[in-house]
Amino acid sequence: MKIVIICIFGIESVVVKELLALGYSSPRVSNGRVSIEGDLTDVARCNLWLRTAERIYIETGSFRATDFDMLFDGIFSIDWKALLPADAEIPVRSSSIDSKLFSTRDCQSITKKAIVEKLKKSYGINRIEENGKTFQIEVFIHNDIVSVCLDTTGTGLHKRGYRTLNVEAPLKETIASALLQISYWKPGRVLMDPFCGSGTFIIEAAMIAGNIAPGINRVFSFESWTGENEIISGRLKEEAREKEKQVKEILLFGSDISKDNIEIAKKHAMQAGVSGSSEFVVSDFKNIQKRGEYGIMIANPPYGLRLSDKSEIISLYKNLGTKMKEFDTWSKYILTDDDGFEKNSGCRASKKRKIYNGTIRCTYYQFFGPQPGKC
Ligand SMILES: C[S@@+](CC[C@H](N)C(=O)[O-])C[C@H]1O[C@@H](n2cnc3c(N)ncnc32)[C@H](O)[C@@H]1O
To answer: What's the CA-to-centroid distance between 49 and ligand 1, angstroms?
Structure first.
């Protein structure tokens, strides 16, 4: 079957890298989605191990539709009895881009009607009670091509379970992991986040270093569909626990000016099972010191979203530039919405990449340091 992996636009290549590392040889990529062929064990593996995916779907059908009759017929032609029990609860979501069928509300109700009619016919019953397990259906329409999918994930994959308290403007776990995987950081190298907030970068890095599966403490919706699914997922989780590594040396450091945020970061690290490999302290970024040479600095400093913040942010970015120059042998990675960050910080990026942080269009500024021994 076709497994469709949805991710944030711009990080498809990181999802592909993760899939290759898991042993999937030929992932296919389009905007914000990557697909592979596989079975329920692969569905379980992707949910459990992909750090940068938002959601994992099973595609149940794909066809062209430019009017509601074509949509109904396409949905009706799918063998829903093989996928859903007679009492399934069937909520439907839909989205449409550049297509003749643009009313998502109408698409949802026609999809639902077609599934219900098909189930009634296939099971030989007059009514679908919808008082059983939940099977979330998602209909994606792009350029008049309909992709009908079953959501196997439930709550989005960025919810690993360790973040229980909120700070202002936290970074999504999936984005933090993608930015780390794009950077030169790898386990065994020092990493510092001087604006760590709730600790996302440091905790995600610690989970990578400890080979902790991002979904290890989660339940995915497909697990509730059948006892067999639960067994498959349970077995993979057990195997994942056996593959975890003990990291003895602390190389991952977060700091923040807010005492409350540092308390939250420590709590989250504990809940993620990585408090032994990470350290969080209260500090103004201006006071941080290099920990050795050739480390990695990564940060998501405050953004100047309100006009009133602008001058404050420009001054903060200027001071950050001074600090970055002090970390001369380090590679530095900054995510901000500021198009003028290079000018404001006085540091010229080696590479830039556009990333959406929620609805905010940001740039990931990458400043490569010298290779060890070539300084
Ligand atoms: C956008 S938030 C970072 C969110 C973080 N990446 C997370 O996932 O939770 C920016 C952080 O910078 C911190 N901050 C602001 N000014 C600072 C300063 N002068 N020194 C250190 N941290 C500062 C704030 O307290 C806030 O936690």
So the answer is: 28
